[in-house]
Amino acid sequence: MISLNVNRKIYQVDADPNMPLLWVIRDIIGLTGTKFGCGVAQCGACVVHLNGEAVRSCVTKVSRAEGQQVTTIEGLSADNNHPAQVAWNEENVPQCGYCHSGQIMSAAVLLRENPDPSDEDIDAAMAGNICRCGTYQRIRKAIHLASEIQKKGGAK
To answer: What is the predicted pLDDT for the residue at 150?
Structure first.
């Protein structure tokens, strides 16, 4: 048994230590907001936070997460009120929406590390997250809005 702390809740999972964290989150724990995109850490759909850092859960072994803090899109905020989540809604960012859990999780780390990112900062930080629908301009606009919401004391 492997003990995981996911979204501040402890789970005892019976999984191979080499199993990707993504599949434990989705198939064993049942949190399906984190998506499978490519399986080789190239698209960003599977981004979760491991001790506050963005990681690709499709290539992160569950054994690496044991005893650590894992946060999925479901645990980013209590009421979907993280500044990035609010901004994503305000700017109508998603088109198909498939990649946006990973996009938001990456944006949350960017905003924590750089509360006032430039366009170049956003482009660099988000470069590893692919959106097949091409909503990159709306993503950038939403991150700027999330920065403003955060500065005004919006939920974090």
So the answer is: 95
